[in-house]
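Lab notebook: predicted structure, single chain.

Context: the supervisor wants predicted structures on file for every construct in the current expression panel, including those that have not yet been purified. This is the next one on the list. No modifications to the sequence; it matches the entry in the shared construct table.
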Amino acid sequence: MLRISRREEVGALILAALLAVGLLFKYVILPQPAPEVVIERAEEMQAGVNEVVAEIVVHVSGAVRHPGVYRLKDGARVVDAVDAAGGIVPEGNADAINLAEPLYDGRKVTVPFIKQTETGNTGDTVDSRVNINEATAAQLETLPGIGPAKAAAIISYREANGPFRSVDDLAAVGGIGAKTVDALKELITLY
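Prediction complete. Output recorded below exactly as produced.
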């Protein structure tokens, strides 16, 4: 049996008392730090709840693994559309397209095959209409009734507001009315 001397007994009691006093100080006497309170403004909380990711729909065709129609986040690039379609097949010519080009809703991306680009035949029919979402000022000026000032206004509007979503949106450009848009409908395109 273990024998404890009187001196050891007193030492153990002193240690126990010191431990009790230390715990008393830590949890009762010393102030506890206040819990951290985070206050968010109502607008910030609401923004997270109602956040909607804008989507665009693009058609990917040609030398990709899975041609088809894909939904992508607004602001996506051609490379994102090609990746969504499974990537370019070995027979595809990635250098024939601009992979960094921004996409817009309704866009068709065609990745040509190497043989098509070598022969100059990409398989695409030539569209003589002017693409108002990509045209330069000189190309816009080929349209009847569009001079340098209106061409500059179209480009400024496009840069400020993004690509045109409809041909009728052209009427929102200063100096271009509904009659001009009607006259141009057969000569312009968005894609």
